[in-house]
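User: Fold this one for me? It's RDD family protein.
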Amino acid sequence: MSSGRETTGGPRWTQTWLGGARSAGAELGYPGERLGLPENGTGAVAGYGRRLVALFVDWGLCMVIAAAAARTLELAPQSRSLLTLGVFALQAVVLNATLGMTLGKRLCGIRVVRLDGRPVGPVWALVRTVLVLFVVPALFWDRDHRGLHDRAADTVVIGLS
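Assistant: Here's what I get for RDD family protein.
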């Protein structure tokens, strides 16, 4: 009768596919290595945590702006959610296109850059923002921590320090 454990001291077969390519012995390098970015410090790919905090800061600020606008314009409470989405989209497109970062990104020390070295610009900022608004594309990441929205716009989020 088998207890489900390997007697040879090797990993169980499920550990190789559940743990991903690294557990199977594949050396993938660090995030951003394929893009020519440093492993740590300024210019390295930003981690998930800082990106998520920046998103929450941006969304929270947009909620405050939308609530104030809804109260001032005497809009129905149901309109506030759509207004929040619109304010978020507008600030993301304008700030990423001009500065490469939103207020949340600035507070978290991260920035959006194009891989070819040019500014993000309004067209690619719009493409990136539309895909973020659909949510699902932003949930699928590659090994360089780039979501589908980053891949479509040929961008990467890097650390400022």
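One thing worth pointing out: Helices lie at 13-18, 48-72, 77-98, 103-108, 121-133, 136-139, 148-153.
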